[in-house]
Amino acid sequence: MLKELATPFLTHKYLLFQLTQRSIKARYKQSIIGYAWVLINPLAQLLVYTFVFSVIFKFPTNNIPYPVFLFAGLLPWIYMQNVLASATTSLVDNADLIRKVYFPREILIYSVVLSKTVDFVFALSLLFIFMVVYHIPIGLTTLYIIPLFIIQIILMSGLSLFFSTFNLFYRDIQYLVTLLLLLWTYLTPVVYALSLVPEKYISIYKLNPMVGIIEGYRSALFNLAFDTGTICWSLIISVFIFVISYIFFKKSEKVFADIV
User: Fold this and answer.
1) How far apart are CA 240 and CA 214, in angstroms?
2) Rounded to an integer, what distance in angstroms lies between the CA atom of residue 172 and that of residue 177?
3) What are 226-241's pLDDT values in tens digits?
4) 158-168 burial string, b = 16+ CB within 10 Å, else e?
5) In Å, what is the CA distance from 24 to each residue of 27, 120, 121, 209, 216?
6) Which residue from 15, 29, 39, 212 could staple onto 234, CB 3.0 to 4.6 Å apart?
7) DSSP 3-state of 43
8) 89: DSSP letter
9) Is the pLDDT reported for residue 33 higher than 60?
10) Of 28, 116, 110, residue with least CA distance to 79
11) CA separation for the pair 55, 49 (Å, rounded)
């Protein structure tokens, strides 16, 4: 299985690169401001959420300026949203390619994840600028973002493989994913602190794998204590989702060309 997993990155790496490049270029083709949308989208959401949740509701943020606190959770969440929204329809969108050429179909999913990763990295640089502006020190704990980022990649890839396969059979799935992401936003500590969740619900709440990932990002960036138990759970459930989804994807792959 490990050899099969590595095939897209070894044997078909050129195709993966080309599809990723095509995805990035196509997204902003004929756009007036082009790649600036990578920053405008999270900034617009940041402004709205900051006004609502720091001016009107005034959520506590452990003495961290709310715009920076919010941005640290908003960026990985937007990253997740963008990947799932695009990956879910990626098999349908590439129907002609699937019918005409043989290649490991998961490359289409991985190319979406990689192209959205470029956006995420650019947006992350803006977060570091915010930290400098608000005089928040950038320490060595920031490096812990890397393993958290890998966990998120595993989770997103697994969910993308699962939803894209189901969407090929049932086109309603793409609309269901949009609804799920909307609901999931409010069940994840993106705009509010984890401390606001009532104690009697916290164990169930932490079953959400994005809780450990987003809280981990904030701990790494703001040098806070890590909830290692929740982060380990995020890793376990992410790997589990990926393995199950990958097996399901590969078993269904043989009929993709007939259905698409």
Assistant:
1) 19
2) 9
3) 999 999 999 999 999 9
4) bbbbbbbbbbb
5) 5, 12, 13, 28, 28
6) 212
7) helix
8) T
9) no
10) 116
11) 9
Task: Check pLDDT > 80 for residue 121.
Answer: yes
The SS3 call for residue 33 is coil
Question: What's the rounded Cα separation, in Å, for the pair 252 and 5?
Answer: 16
The pair of structure tokens assigned to 150 is: 């890998």
CB of 77 within 8 A of CB of 190? yes
3-state secondary structure of 65: coil
Work out the burial of residue 189: count CB atoms within 10 Å of its CB; fewer than 13 is exposed, 13-18 middle, 19 or more buried.
buried
Tokens 């405008």, located at residue: 40
| In the block, residue with structure tokens 């969740």 | 197
Which stretches of the chain are DSSP H helices?
2-10, 13-27, 37-50, 66-88, 90-93, 95-100, 106-133, 145-169, 173-186, 202-205, 209-222, 228-252, 256-259
Cα–Cα distances (Å) from 258 to 45, 249, 251, in that order, read 41, 15, 14
CA angle 91, 95, 97 (to 5 degrees): 105
Residue written as token pair 């982060």: 231
- Give the residue carrying structure tokens 């009929």: 255
Entry pTM: 0.90
Q: How do the domains of the chain map onto residue ranges?
A: 32-259
pLDDT for residue 253 is more than 80: yes
Is the CB of residue 215 less than 8 Å from the CB of residue 148?
A: no
Which tokens hold the place of 187? 């069940």
Q: How far apart are CA 153 and CA 9, in angstroms?
A: 15
Tell me the C-alpha distance between 49 and 68, whole Å: 12
